Amino acid sequence: MQQVLEIGAAPKYRDFAVIVVLVTPGGIPMVRERRPGRVPYLKFPGGKRDGEETPEKCAVREMDEETGAKIDPEKLVLLHWEDRDTHDFFVFGLKLPELPVLKHTGDEGEEVGAYSREGLKGRKDVFPKHREIGAIRQFIYG
What we know:
It is built from 4 helices and 9 strands. By secondary structure, the chain is of the alpha+beta class.
């Protein structure tokens, strides 16, 4: 992760986006955004940073806002990172023994659902860029 440090200053992160892959025996929380002009793909919860938050804090906030699931930033595992020219992209994973209580609708109107590992295999409506990341498949299917 690129940081610019000034003497005596807190770390400053360049722009970034995160997604969180939460795997539980009760399912994997995903969201479906319905926005005009966009294909309504299933996506892992995530988004862009607010202010000077860390990638981990952003992941926790986005998971809560989009699904209602409360997660511990200390337990997140970095699965993937890439430099996307204008910003960094982080994929975090977390495995929990049970599915947290989820909202039916996210803060921005996203549909929220939990999908089984087997139920996700072969789905054509999962966001293509998320499907392409091998570290996500490895984390989910082992």
